[in-house]
Amino acid sequence: MNVRVRFAPSPTGYLHIGSARSALFTWMYAQRYNGSFILRIEDTDLKRTREGALEDFKSSLDWLGITWDEGPDVGGAHGPYVQTERAALYQECAIRLLNNGFAYKCFCTAEELAQRRAKVQGAKESWLGYDRTCRYLSAEEIAAQEAEGKSFAIRFKMPLEGTTTVPDLIRGDIVFENSQVADYILLKSNGLPTYHLAHPVDDHFMAISHITRGVEWISTAPLHVNVFQAFGWDLPIYVHMPLILNPSGQGKLSKRTQAFDDSGQQVFVRVEEFREAGYLPEALVNFLANVGWSFGDDREKFTVQEAIPRFDLADINPAETRLPYDKLDWLNGQYIQEMAPREIAEAIKPYLEGEGYEVDLEALLLLTPTLSMRLKRFTDAVSLLRFLYVDDPLSVTVSDLTDKKLEQPAAQQAFRHAREFVAAIEPYEKEVIGDGLIAVGEQNTSNGKAGPFLGRMRLAVTNQKVSPPLFESMLAMGRERVLARLDEAIAILDERS
Predict the structure, then answer these.
(1) Which of 24, 105, 204, 215 is most deeply buried (CB count within 10 A of its CB)?
(2) Model's pTM, two decimal places?
(3) Residue 63's Cα: distance from chain center in Å?
(4) What tens digit of pLDDT does each residue of 246-296 get?
(5) Pairing of strands 185-187, 259-260
(6) Residues that are catalytic
(7) Where are the beta strands (DSSP E) in 317-401?
(8) To 10 degrees, the CA torsion angle through 93, 95, 101, 102?
(9) Starting at the edge strand that comes first in sequence, how are the strands of the sheet with 172-177 ordered?
(10) Distance linking the first and last C-alpha atoms of the chain
(11) In this structure, what are the phi and psi dihedrals at residue 330, rounded to the nearest 5 degrees?
């Protein structure tokens, strides 16, 4: 089989993390079997189409490393790849169904449908979405409606008896009673198709072999199967992707409402949010590949190139699942640890600049070797490195600068010795700084160990309880700023002695 698959988003919002997973799995399948991955834009919902959404989709997919072989910007033999540019084809196909008795004209207005729906619901009767009023109009009644200039939609004439089987690659055959499926609109009165017509038409004419889409489309899948059959077209293979749930486990993870985990912390749902939060694309791809599919060998960390030879759509677990966000933090940290110091410096630089900091890349490089084990996201660097760019007054107390092994008189002496040492040393280098300050600590603590002093020294120098190691921090700050901090610490110890 010639594998041809597509990702077909509607430009009504941003790229949702669930949609990104569907795109990833679909793309991996195409890669595995040397097939074609098509980007198709389903933009027929004009009221909800958002300006800039298409560019966001393309930017987010590109960031994730998901490339397309055919699409609105690269072209291809089966274009155009934007549905509003294919309107004439949909109209032609709708008329074909109409002429062959598989569809009918519906003249019902939105107001009339709303009134009938309210009446049925008030009587607690079942309502499939339409009562088929226009299905049974005679030729004379249709002609009369048209003579009055009434606009019409075209609805599919769903079989009223029997069953329809929807074959699904990961769920098996799903059987539906035809009597429980509505006569859905195929072509709207404005001449544009609904999904129920555009999807079969596009997938046929684009020679799509596998239709990957969300599980929410299963309920209308029997309609789509019947549309394919009405045209006499071969049915592609359906793959209904499992739902990604809210962190609470209640309902779908929506792109239109905020979601929160069990601790009340907001979680990300749009791909651009993960990017802005400091995640690496390879970590996010690895994370998504683990959601509903297993690499095997008890491995959770792997590259997409390692995964592709093992991947098959048939192996996707159909069960609903929640995103384990803590696992993403772990994975991202693992990938950061593999980066070279300069790569880390260049990666965190934009986040620091976003806070208004003027970043010296060379000074940053003095610290990045110590950051790789500490960062889960690149945004973590903003708080860790604040001391490099902000000179707030030293916000510590005497108790912060002392210890059971370094009481106040000893601390006063140790900080004075440290200041004298820092002011005089040449060269001002990590090894020299380290040897000297270790000696100061050992000489002034009651147990002869440098640790109690060096911890207080780091707090005094960085003005932060959490920061990179002391010696590297002092190098990055520069001698003069370190001396100013030590003067503040000595003043605090002297004032309250």
Answers:
(1) 24
(2) 0.91
(3) 11
(4) 776 667 776 655 666 666 677 899 999 999 999 999 999 999 999 999 999
(5) unpaired
(6) 255
(7) 321-322
(8) 40
(9) 36-39, 4-7, 210-214, 237-241, 163-168, 172-177
(10) 84
(11) -65, -50
